[in-house]
Amino acid sequence: MKCCIVTLGCQMNQSDSERIRSVIEGMGYVLTAVEEEADLIGVVACSVRQKAIDKVYSKIRKWNRWKNDRPLVTFVSGCILPADEEKFLKLFDLVFRMNELPELPTALQQCGVATEFSTRHLLDELEREDERTDFWQVEPTYGSDFEAFVPIQNGCDKFCSYCAVPYTRGREVSRASADILAEVEKLVGNGVKSITLLGQNVNSYGLDKKGEELSFAGLLNQVGELGNKSGKDFWVYFTSPHPRDMTRDVIETIAQYGCLAKQIHLPVQSGDEEMLRHMNRNHGIDAYKKIIADIRELLPTATLFTDIIVGFSGETDEQLENSARLMEEVGFNMAYIAKYSPRPGARSAEWPDDITPQQKSERLAKLSAILKRTSRAHNERMVGKTYRVLVERADKRMEGALVSRTEGRLLVRILQASEGLIGTFQDVRITSAAELSLTGELAGA
Ligand code: 5AD
Ligand code: SF4
């Protein structure tokens, strides 16, 4: 029996998908990447862009046509808007939320899916814990031997006006720190080199269990201690934090421990005060700049990434200019710039989407040009120096080259290196710089 899982969207979905995979493999299925040969097929959906939602509809229509010719069971999970959920219930055999994952084997049996193995064991094991079964206790089947995602939190309480996440994933729930630390320790013991702590709003970690649970800085501190004790080399990242909860002690903790990577992804969304208010971000530009100043002071080598939305409801040319100015000032190494698109259910969906597609494209191009300029200037200063990188994969575009990343997550193409180095740390001398990437050679070579 074969199962195919199509994963759309962000790293959180990839992480969820790793846990879904474990449950399904536990039922005796073999995973396939070929939809056509699957008996069980599902999608981990994303609702951030309409395009991703459209893709789910086109997939399920296709799969439902296949059902005329052969038996097939379909499921959907991930980030689903309430409005889509109602429609998905009619289109898919099974719609489940991640917190229902432990019940997936039973639900599939009820769909008439025969399984080779006992499907109860997973549930029994979970129920023995004598607490509410939770999907984080399902051990994931990691997609890589040297890079791993570790969810620390699910959902979001921030209600940014453009965002659908509080409606697709619900309120913020922090995972028990003991479980997070146990997972990190196990990964480190297995030689994993890059670990990313995941959540919609990682730095409000623990606030839902105040007094009972660590703060985010406290959690990072424990991870740092674990790193020191392990005697192993690895980098720990987290994504994404919210400026509102980005306290100085978080940055101080990162400065204190070698394993906490000097790379910060801090979404700003807009460089304009009024837009930030309109977006319900609950912080001002000065507060954002103060955090950046703290990062520059305490983590002088850190790279900075951000997310920005252009063409939000009512955004004027001057307001876009303020985003441009902020980008110039900070000099981000990377910015994920998105054209605003109304998400049904989110607050702003009721407001006019009044910036034309052409204006949005122009604004995106404008910010993207600034990003290219500032990131190139940064990268040029790296030429001639040697950096530690983690080798990720062979370069698809260049024969004999490898793709790697610095601690700051900058992409370095290593020329003439053996694929045997994939998954290892290497020292690389940077020989040339481009807009969003670098080229180098093995320092020993
Ligand atoms: N339109 C455009 N971009 C969005 N994002 C979230 N919602 C929207 C939307 N409605 C972007 C934000 C967020 C990232 C994950 O996606 O920049 O940080
Ligand atoms: Fe969405 Fe804002 Fe929560 Fe991020 S912080 S998931 S953008 S509501």
Structural summary, described in words:
It is a single chain. With 445 residues, this protein is an alpha/beta fold. The protein contains 13 helices and 18 strands. The chain has a 5-stranded parallel sheet, with helices on both faces. A 5-stranded mixed barrel has the order 14-15-16-18-17. The model is unreliable at 116-133 (pLDDT under 50). The chain binds 5'-deoxyadenosine and iron/sulfur cluster. Residues 48, 162-163, 267, 269, 307, 309, 338, 340-341, 343 line the site of 5'-deoxyadenosine. Iron/sulfur cluster is lined by residues 156, 158-160, 163, 165-166, 200-201, 242.
Helix/strand class: alpha/beta
- Spatial separation of the terminal alpha carbons: 48 Å
Number of strands: 18
- Count the DSSP helices: 13
Give the proportion of residues in helices: 25-40%
Bound molecules: 5'-deoxyadenosine, iron/sulfur cluster
Strand content bin: 15-25%
Estimated radius of gyration? 23 Å
Main β-sheet: number of strands, strand sense, barrel status?
5 strands, parallel
